[in-house]
Amino acid sequence: MNNRCIIDFKPNCVEHHILPKSLGGSDDESNKVWLCAEHHQIVHNTGATRWIDYFMELKDKRAAARNP
User: Fold this and answer.
1) Distance separating alpha carbons of residues 50 and 65, to the nearest angstrom
2) 3-state class percentages of the chain: helix first, strand second, coil last, to nearest 5
3) SS3 for 3?
4) 14-17 and 32-35 strand pairing
5) What are the pLDDT digits (tens) for 18-37?
6) Contact 48, 20 (CB under 8 A)
């Protein structure tokens, strides 16, 4: 792991469970991502599945900006 946010690539991030342990998620590396403080807060404020929609929307916007 490179300890950079998967959304904006900021350094010094925290690990976040993709599927929360409270919903059956594991501590396996495949269930963890790195998030900066800003995006970690967004994830927790929007719920377990909504953040995936946010990430995919951001990813699509980035791709469109690179390939107008």
Assistant:
1) 23
2) 50, 15, 35
3) coil
4) antiparallel
5) 878 888 889 998 888 899 99
6) yes
